[in-house]
Every structure is written in structure tokens, then in C-alpha cells.
Design a protein that fits this description.
single chain; alpha/beta; Rossmann fold; formyl-coa transferase, domain 3; 2 domains; six-stranded parallel β-sheet; three-stranded antiparallel β-sheet; about 15% strand; elongated
């Protein structure tokens, strides 16, 4: 039996944050029903590989929530749902007549999760935004890069995934766990900006304790230490993560520079830093990989994505006709099943899902004639 078997999720979200959140739940057996409008649906459908990656194992219904009959059909579905997930700006679902308070009337046990940029009550609540905007406003983007250089965007969507999708998944499961005791659902308010800010827990703690705010490239784990930085090598780049003295000293011994063993925390730009740069430049990525195998000092090559995927092991799975990334969470008794069918065609399961909710064939036909479902 899957870990989340028996759980039904109505996912109205679009694009990455909500889609990734419900993907995790689908991989662990939840019945995730992707609810799209009768128009273009989820924007990510324009990129088929990305769509399949985010929507494998889900079912799809197409409902026009602006149509009163469509709204009523969704209310009907909500009565048998455990979770509703959405990513509209605050107030949109209320205006459609399917906000949390209205859905709670239909189903007091419902856990309702809203992923937004800035949360429900922020002064920025109605502002549009994307991952980079949230990272800019948290200080995370401003701290990333070299001193006096431009801020550097991460290739992964930190706020969307780390601040939104993962926080939402945790919030939903926490609310469901509490429901086991109380019998009541609740509203889960996820702000991607706030979630991203929490990633700066250690650096923010120092500033809140009275330390001066660091400049770009000065934080210990983002360029401020010569023992914890990327270095250019003979054919690309490697990472050096020798935070603990034992790793630094193992590296120094391995490269024959015992004179550097007590100078681990010399400043960036110092003579020691330039000496370390010179040593790394002498060997290739593969030579440094072999060096690390021998000396265990936290040196690893910087790989291109295609190279990384070659070494991804069981994180690459076959899902129907697609090869996709698998699930990074591994449970010993009830593991995920990321090999289920790829993302469904828009509205493919509308009739089946409505029938499961108790609507007759005639009622479903009437909804279709009214343009309320597609």
C-alpha cells in the first residue's frame, strides 16, 4: 500500500510550485486530480517534457469555474476531497465562489493550501512575481555572487520549489496529521517569499543577533571562505567543501602543501587564496575526482546537466514513454512509484471523476452542453 493511498487532492495550481507539490503526493499514491479551466489549461502544457515531469500519475478534469454550473460541479467534488491546492492571487477563489470559507461549508475536514508569492495578508499580496523577484526581496539573490560582481541567479528555482512546493507539501501533511486528532481541516498559507527567506536561517540569525549584514560573496557558505568555494581547474571547475579542519588538512597533505594546513581561514583574495587557486588549476576535473577518492577532502567536479544525469542512478526513471526524474524521498516500506503514466491530456478524466463524485451520466451531459466542463 502506498504511503498516501486514499488521499484525494484537487490541484488547481499552474506551472511549477503547485505542480511539484502535488507531484510528490501523487508519487506516494495520492489520487491527484488536476483541475484546469476549459480554455488553455495549465500554461506548462506548452512545454510537453516539463508538463509530463510535473504531472505524471495525476488525473485531469476540465471545469469552468466562472460558469455557475461548473462552480457547482467543483463544490460537489470538494465534498469528497481531502486537499485543495491552488496558486492564484489572494481573493481570486473567493470571487469565483469556491474560496476556503465556501468550501469549508461543503467539507469541514478539507485542508486548503494556497501557494502565493507573498502570502494572504502581505502588503505585496496582489503583486505579480516570479522566483527571481522573491529571491531579490529576501536578500538571497543579493548575497549570491562575487564581491563587486552582479547578483547570480541560481539555475534551480529556489523560491518556487524550496520556498513554495516543499513548504506546501509539509504544511499540507502537518494539517492532515492534525486533522487525524481534531477531525477538522484548516487553511495552509504558503508565501514563496517567506519560504525562501527561511533558507537564510543561519545568516539572518547572525544579523538579528546584532552582526553587520554581509555583503555579496562574504557569507561563509556563499564565497566568504577559501576552503568552501568553486575553483577553476585545468578543464573546467571543481568544488572545494573543506569546512572541517580535517578535510582541509587532508587536502593540504595530498597536494604537498603542509605549509597551508593552519591557514584555512585566510581571507578571499589573500596570498593563500591565490596559492590554492594555482594548485587547483594544475589538474583536471577527473584527476580531482580521483584525488578525492584517495584523500576524502570534499572535492567534486562541477558537472553539466547531461553529465549529472549520466550519474543520477535511480533518480532517472521510465514513466510511460518518458524518461523523467524520480522521487528523492525514499521510504523503506511504502516507497514512491514515480514510474506511473506521464501527465494526462487536458480533461481526460472529467467524466470519470464527476461520476465518482455521484453525478449521473445525464447530469454530466448537461454540464458539457452548458460549457461548464470540457
Amino acid at each position: 500500500m502506498s504511503a498516501l493511498a486514499g488521499l484525494r487532492v484537487l490541484d488547481l495550481s499552474r506551472l511549477l510550485p503547485g505542480g511539484f507539490c502535488s507531484l510528490l503526493m501523487a508519487d506516494f499514491g495520492a489520487d491527484v486530480i488536476k483541475v484546469e479551466d476549459t480554455g488553455m489549461g495549465d500554461y506548462v502544457r506548452a512545454d510537453p517534457p516539463a508538463f509530463h515531469a510535473l504531472n505524471r500519475g495525476k488525473r485531469a478534469v476540465s471545469i469552468d469555474l466562472k460558469n455557475p454550473a461548473g462552480r457547482d460541479a467543483f463544490l460537489h467534488l470538494s465534498r469528497r476531497a481531502d486537499v485543495v491546492l491552488e496558486s492564484f492571487r489572494p481573493g481570486v477563489m473567493d470571487r469565483l465562489g469556491v474560496g476556503y470559507e465556501r468550501l469549508r461549508e461543503e467539507n469541514p475536514r478539507l485542508v486548503y493550501c494556497a501557494i502565493t508569492g507573498y502570502g494572504q495578508d502581505s502588503p505585496y499580496a496582489q503583486r505579480a512575481g516570479h522566483d527571481m523577484n522573491y529571491l531579490a526581496l529576501t536578500g538571497l539573490l543579493g548575497l549570491t555572487g562575487e564581491p563587486d560582481g552582479a547578483p547570480i541567479q541560481a539555475a534551480g528555482q529556489i523560491a518556487d520549489l524550496g520556498g513554495g512546493a516543499l513548504m506546501a507539501a509539509f504544511g499540507i501533511l502537518a494539517a492532515l496529521r492534525e486533522r487525524d486528532a481534531s477531525g477538522a481541516g484548516q487553511f495552509v498559507d504558503i508565501s514563496m517569499k517567506d519560504g525562501a527567506l527561511s533558507w537564510l536561517a543561519m545568516d539572518a540569525a547572525r544579523v538579528l543577533a546584532g552582526a553587520a549584514a554581509p555583503e555579496r560573496g562574504e557569507t561563509p557558505l556563499a564565497g566568504g571562505l577559501i576552503c568552501y568555494r568553486p575553483y577553476r581547474c585545468a578543464d573546467g571547475w571543481v568544488t572545494f567543501g573543506a569546512l572541517e579542519p580535517k578535510f582541509w588538512q587532508a587536502w593540504c597533505a595530498g597536494v604537498g602543501r603542509a605549509d597551508l594546513a593552519e591557514r584555512q581561514f585566510e581571507p578571499v583574495g589573500s596570498d593563500v587564496h591565490r596559492a590554492v587557486e594555482a594548485v587547483f588549476a594544475e589538474r583536471t576535473r577527473e584527476e580531482w575526482r580521483a584525488f578525492n577518492d584517495e584523500h576524502d577532502c570534499c572535492v567534486e567536479p562541477v558537472l553539466a546537466l547531461d553529465e549529472a544525469l549520466e550519474h543520477a542512478g535511480d533518480m532517472v526513471v521510465d514513466s510511460g514513454s518518458e524518461r523523467l526524474l524520480g522521487t528523492p524521498v525514499r521510504l523503506s516500506r511504502t516507497p514512491a512509484d514515480p514510474s506511473r503514466a506521464a501527465g494526462p491530456p487536458r480533461g481526460a478524466d472529467t467524466d470519470a471523476v464527476l461520476a465518482e463524485a455521484g453525478l449521473t451520466a445525464g447530469e454530466i451531459g448537461a454540464l458539457r452542453e452548458a460549457g461548464a466542463v470540457g
